Amino acid sequence: IETTIDLLGERDIQAFSMAEASRRLGVAVAAPYRHFAGREDLLAAVAVRAAGLLGQQLARDVTATDPAQRLAAAAGCYVRFAAAQRPLFQALAGSGLDKQRHPEIMRAAAPLAQAFLAPAVALADGDEAAGGRLSSAVVATAHGHAMLLLDGTFGTGPPAAAAAATQAEAAAHALIAGRSQLTEPPPPAPA
After folding, report:
1. pLDDT computed for residue 3 by the predictor
2. Cβ contacts of 122 within 8 Å, gap of 6 or more
3. Res 149 pLDDT > 90
4. pLDDT in tens, 123-132
5. Alpha-carbon distances, residue 154 vs 75, 162, 163 (angstroms)
6. DSSP string computed for 97-118
7. Which candidate, 68, 167, 59, 166, places its Cα nearest to that of 115?
8. Are 138 and 172 in contact (CB under 8 A)?
9. Is residue 47 a contact partner of residue 105, using CB atoms and an 8 Å limit?
């Protein structure tokens, strides 16, 4: 897993191969298959590690008692994690892994979802549906800012990460202020 994280830090996730990880470790190409059924299972293990680390960072950094401040801080924390832990973030959020096939990722990410949902529900006076819509909008905003940061839109280095995190927090506050505009999606059109 550590070697995979190192390799993901050196190249795009799509270019990662188990054979390359084996070579880097100096083991037979077949050796990783004793532990993982294939590339996707290894990447899922990295995604689980990433979810755990992001959950720890959220628990450590998002300490405000005010739900609006907590929700905005969670958005900024998400972006800062993407900047500081790019390979892990890409395994968790950009690998294209089928989360239904890998329920362990969903279980590991549950505390992340709760870090956004709990303050959103509090802001919605306990209305789970309204809180869910707000949480979803803030997560989408945080993810968008993280991806823009990783794509270089904010520049590079610590100032770029700080700018992207600050912008994500500001956007979260805007969503919080306009949360009444977040309506339920329309039902699907009949086939």
Report:
1. 79
2. 67, 131
3. yes
4. 999 999 999 9
5. 16, 9, 7
6. --TTT-HHHHHHHHHHHHHHHH
7. 59
8. yes
9. yes
